[in-house]
């Protein structure tokens, strides 16, 4: 920047020389204000999504910068929502980026008084063992009248309404193959 | 709707701007009422009386849509001579067995025909008949099976044995139309006003607006939330609305219908592809236990089934092929034997009771928080504390994960941390922006959400969790890990898992299963592995695979149809190219009814689908929910089967008779028509019948689940007020997705109750102060909002106060408070096992609740004063003047 | 284009951006908040906070109906007021507002629940801007009024200057904050976050001229439907602040919503004050001179 341009950049000079004699508009505009851009303009990408709260199914635009979600707003293309969101939908960015959201597996041993750390792979292995063990111990081939049951009532599952169809599908498929029938979700609650 | 579905409410506001009259019927004056033209503050739990009054209004003044009703409903069918109505039996229908609390529906049938239940009950229907013929099983055994037959409400349907007698003049005294007319004759404006606590003028205002806005030129839509389903007569609430809408010709037409406003992103999807005990994907029933049951028996061996449910065999075989692949062959009945069998209800609340009793040792909680969100949350926590192992998958440390450390029962001293043996695994979940997948919204539309970023740390999708859990279990059972050799019996038991098709491609460093590959399996393939485009392509010979027949075509042509996003403004108002709606991208179900029997639109204004005689096919704004080339004058031959048995002027193609049912000859556990019963817990006696509550409701007598005396039973005055629970715009269900968010928590930072100035004055409650609420289950405290939006109603000369309780809170997170659901009883609708949350009784008193053991003592003191025993509130049949 | 001092400070002014030195500029943009369709969902509050990364403002249950954010402030740039009104029943036509429960116990009472999303008015004559000694507050090329966080030194002169009580200092931060009408989004051709989120289009964003026309039509329609209480607020260029860049359709008196009935730019009398000050100063000078002169005597 030349000295002349530098001096012309002074607000007082702009105010006296320009069309803003009271210095309340163009002359007062700061460098930051001049450079200001919407963060959605500079996002690396915009990804189409759907609001995770109620079942209206509002379209969402998810803006990502540096592999972080930087903004979530309504998708104007959606014939369902026309770009609008309710307070919960509008808070989705906070939902997914909240600093206190859990990121690590936590484990409480039987009779334990505190949470403990646990490696994810170990947790998965332990859970698989629990399922196998409970299933074996509580398996029912038939009832007392000889009717075929082929099942376990030893473990149950609750959840699905907040999940994807594909997730519910794998859940139902796996549980049914395991012989588990006490599978329920919010649809009944 | 403005409260819980604000963005959906934009369309209501748009309709209003175009002249629509918005009517809000709700005990509370909410943000919806504030924008409605008419608000009817009826007493909680009296909607059947209100809707029944509207039905009577329509019938008694001949305001029904004659041509529609004659052609499209079962009004002409003649009901059996031995059928007895609630009007004859003081609130019971014929066939009720007090001992078993169940109805035998045989007298509800049509004359000249047995109608088998919906697809969901067929298996049991066949079984009942066989048992009756054989007479070989104990009465108790039969009872169990009949009970379970009513517990598997699948999709609509029904199948005829024989041909029902009909009277097309609707004059026969036993035709459905006349039965209906008599049944609702006592639901007069005066009675509605008395039961609902409103004025006749208010009722008539609604009746006039509704009937003026129905017919050829105009349609009226009903929208409801769990305010209609959370009752012990919830299914009958919807039935009442269905009868009314059929009489007015408002089903299958644009601007009509009965719209469920569902509250979770994919709660519709998790019903279609059910994480529910009684159904398989696409509303196929889970099989019940038999000595011998083969695939044919399951589908029902009888030939001649009519309507699209006639193809259930193709849907079932294709599902089994999708799950067990090449192992599933005609010789082994496509592995039908691999499916576990039901013996009774295995609903959530049955599980809770079993957990408390110690017979259910493991539990997965996946995006659910029963310690806050479920009725009698206290009993739920006792269940959690009695498990061997518990897996919680959520975003935050919800109350259901931390109950062992800081639950209310730790504070009260009823449980101690060291004594709780439950092993708890908390696994952090990935959010919607961190995974690919589809949600099915409340209008049955699947929409794909794309992954934007990777989850952090140990956060994973459920797709990842269940895929890898299955993979690890399979590896272990295959001996790859333990290398132990299973016994032959054990090997046989493990085969369903080891034979399962479980080879999904994975992506990325976390080995995330490819969600599109799962959708492709749900949508299905033909024998050559080509994607299917329609469920009409499904075959019974094992050549097709399809994980959910109603979703067949969602991956047609190998393209993810659910990810279609042609902007709404660039297509027709129906927007068929945004997402994909089941079935076959139809946006309005039964849309054949938008045209008259001859195939012409009822009116130009309401034209939606019509028969084009030149092209010889159905055309219009939507995909026909009908065989596209079946002409209106098609009359099925008497021996026709499946969809061919549906006539060209019969729009309700999932029903065996192609008709909308004003009267339900089978398939419901609590009557062929709705009748007004008081809620299980009510401060008033039923003004209509000696029968106080739904006689077939399911009760769970347990020391943790005591019921309040109801109606005229002594002790009911101890819990004199009605309370109703609900959500606020600013929070989401049990709070797992809202109470941890500062921006939502600051908008509704604390649990509160809403009371009228009259109740506040009567009980000394101070605005902004504290109140304690007591039910037979629990005592909770809440801040008090005194507001004229809550109004007492007068019923039978008594003032009834109604208390409003939003239910989002627990002790964890930023916005905290007691859970309103602590107060609720576990007592269920017998059809769908849903609990009442909208109309129960309690007492309210000023001040904070007692701490520690004193809290329980207060609850017990109330129980004693009310004389509550294990039997209180469990009686099935009641007569005037108290329980029989 | 030239402007008189009165035009610059208080008289009707057609083009505030030009007055502020923007030779070529986009049309003046603003908000029309139609409270007759507000459902009180508070999406505007959250969308605003998300976009502008505003801190949480406190977790207190106020008992003011469903309003727990109390009012506009440094950390609340959109605020939804909830007004529960029970009035004697005027036998009701359908007003767009329900006339309630003719049947229930208090059948002589009519209940309304008014909801309105308040925001900075972006006045034509903005006193906050006039009194800002640092040039932090400035008028943008869109005619809106924005605090520049890189300039503000937290002096707080703007706070009492605002006739609506909108702008405030943020505790801990010290600087003044208020609605920017999403200045950064406007530059990108986007609408402000609150207007975009608003489910029922209660908050409408656009060129102020168009909004004023639309608002006039809406008021007429409501009057025709019998809602004779409907009126516009802040739309009039001849009012005490020269008209607002964010104006409202209300269903009752402004005071009912907590809005001042007749706001006046607090710097309206500045020229006169300066003149008086000048006279006073001259008098002082004269007196001092006289005193000096007197001394010499």
Structure description:
The complex is a heterotrimer of chains A (189), B (884) and C (297). By secondary structure, chain A is of the alpha+beta class. Chain A contains 7 helices and 9 strands. Chain A folds into 3 domains: 33 residues, no CATH class; 53 residues, N-terminal domain of TfIIb (Single Sheet); 66 residues, no CATH class. A 3-stranded antiparallel beta sheet of chain A has the order 1-2-3. Chain A has a two-stranded antiparallel ribbon with strand order 4-5. In chain A, strands 6-7 form a two-stranded antiparallel sheet. In chain A, a hairpin with an 8-residue loop joins β1 and β2. The radius of gyration of chain A is 29 Å and the shape is elongated. Chain B has a domain of 186 residues: Barwin-like endoglucanases. Chain B is built from 24 helices and 32 strands. Chain B has a 6-stranded mixed beta sheet with strand order 23-25-24-30-22-28. In chain B, strands 11-12-13 form a 3-stranded parallel beta sheet, with no helix packed on it. Chain B has a 3-stranded antiparallel beta sheet with strand order 14-15-18, with helices on one face. The longest helix of chain B is centred in the N-terminal third of the chain and has 16 residues. The two termini of chain B are 41 Å apart. Chain C is globular, with a radius of gyration of 22 Å. About 5% of the residues of chain C have low confidence. Chain C has 297 residues and is α+β, with helices and mostly antiparallel strands. Chain C has 2 domains: 262 residues, Alpha-Beta Plaits (2-Layer Sandwich); 31 residues. In chain C, strands 8-1-10-9 form a 4-stranded mixed beta sheet. Chain C has a two-stranded antiparallel sheet with strand order 2-3. Chain C has a two-stranded antiparallel sheet with strand order 4-5. At the A-B interface, β1, β2, β3, α4 and α5 of A face α11, α14, β11, β12 and α17 of B. β4 of chain A pairs antiparallel with β13 of chain B.
Average predicted confidence as pLDDT of chain A: 93
What is the CATH architecture annotation of one domain in chain B?
Answer: Beta Barrel
Strand content of chain B: 5-15%
Q: What is the topology, as strand order, of the major beta sheet of chain A? A: 1-2-3
Count of DSSP-assigned helices of chain B:
24
Query: What's the structural domain tally of chain A?
Result: 3
Uncertain runs of chain B are 119-157
Strand composition percent of chain A: 15-25%
What is the number of E strands of chain B? 32
Topology, number of strands of chain A? 9
Question: What is the multimeric organization of the chains shown?
Answer: heterotrimer
Query: What is the C-level CATH assignment of one domain in chain B?
Result: Mainly Beta
